[in-house]
Design a protein that fits this description.
elongated
Amino acid sequence: MSSSKRESGSTGLSLVLELVKQQKAWGDIPTGVRKKYSQQLGTEERWERLRIPWALQLHVPHHPNMIIKKRKFYEKALEAFRYKMMPYPYHYQRDVIDLLQVSSRRYYWNLIATALESEKSFDEIPSFTARDVVRLLSIDRNEYIQIANRCKQESQWSRHPKRSNVIARFMPPRHHHHHHHHHH
């Protein structure tokens, strides 16, 4: 592999990242650039499809020139972040709350519920995420293990579709109530 070819590979990637950050639709990319980097950019359809996951990875917000609607974009963001157990996307917070009503607390609540449902151990949760979970839900490693054990003792636990009901019973409330709860 010649050095010039390797070079255009890495400049190709940095060009793609630049175009994503600049929120460029296909029509905004000069023809010369499209030709030169046809390997990375592909067709209009491919570019418009690829921009979305790249934008999420680079924390780039939605843009009206994207092929997906704003709401769908932020739904995808939440799904992708939660699937990877990443911290709440605070950089998208306003849109996520306006469009989807998902606060950071609710996001972590769902993340923990999903982890419990698939019987993950607390140590599989990345440390930044775990720190937020402790801060917002007061669920640390020990508390998580206790909740998991209580869930497993329920007879409904063996019936997968019923798991979410069981989990909700032992988790702190999904929404923050402003009155103080007393611990029993």
